[in-house]
Amino acid sequence: MRSRNSWKSVIFAPVALVLFFGLVYAEDKAPFTGEINAKGINLRNDANVNSIVIATLDKGEQVEVVLEMYGWYKVRLPRKIPVYIKKSLVACIKSTEALAAAAPAAVPETAPRCLSAKLLGDRVNIRLKPSESAPIVGIADKAEVVNVISEAGDWYKIEPIQNSFGWVYKKFVNKVVVAVKPAQETPALKEPEGVSGNPEGLAVFTGKVEPYGMVFFRKATHKFITSDNKVFLLKGNRASLNALNYRKVKLVGKIISAPQEKPPVIEVKIIEVVS
Question: Which is nearest to 169 in space by CA: 38, 260, 269, 267?
Answer without folding.
Answer: 38
